[in-house]
Amino acid sequence: MDEKIGRRNFFGTLINWIFGLTVVSWIVPIVAYLFPKSKGEAENIFMDPSGNPIRTSAVLGEGSKTGLAFGDATIAINYKGELRAFSAVCTHLGCIVSWKKEEGIFFCPCHAGKFDPNGNVISGPPPKPLPQYRVKVEEDKIKLSKV
Ligand code: FES
Predict the structure, then answer these.
(1) Domain 43-146 sits in which CATH superfamily?
(2) 74-106, pLDDT tens digit by residue?
(3) CB-count burial class (<10 Å; 0-12, 13-18, 19+) for 142
């Protein structure tokens, strides 16, 4: 008799745990959906492929630098003395754009897509502008956040 009660308690507890975990596994994604993290809060340091920060002085001196931020190719430019940063991934098929300082445009070599210094499409097949990042400089490091 005591053994039956023990088994009932065991299975009752097990079922409660399974039910509880199931409910939690449903609630967590719903809460994450309802209260998304603000895109503007996350900051990334603009890095070279080796993981070293790319210095402000390097971008300002050379006119542009391609590196990494948010796990993707990113380009920072010196546009008339202002530091700007964009995703370097072309919005057409994902090739990496480069900055043509003389022309003042971003150029995609794959299908000749062109973007102005604000990342807007000038010509070619890209359907959307290059996503721009907010730039903050601290101790010669470039910190980027999503706009
Ligand atoms: S991938 Fe850039 S224009 Fe096609």
Answers:
(1) Rieske [2Fe-2S] iron-sulphur domain (2.102.10.10)
(2) 999 999 999 999 999 999 999 999 999 999 999
(3) buried
List the chain domain ranges: 1-36, 43-146
Mutate to test the pocket of ligand 1, among 75, 92, 115 (most ligand atoms within 8 A of CB): 92
What tens digit of pLDDT does each residue of 12-70 get? 888 888 887 787 777 767 766 676 665 545 899 999 999 999 999 999 989 999 999 99
Protein residue with its CA nearest to atom 1 in ligand 1: 93
The answer to pTM > 0.90 is no
CA atoms within 13 A on the CB side of 142: 33
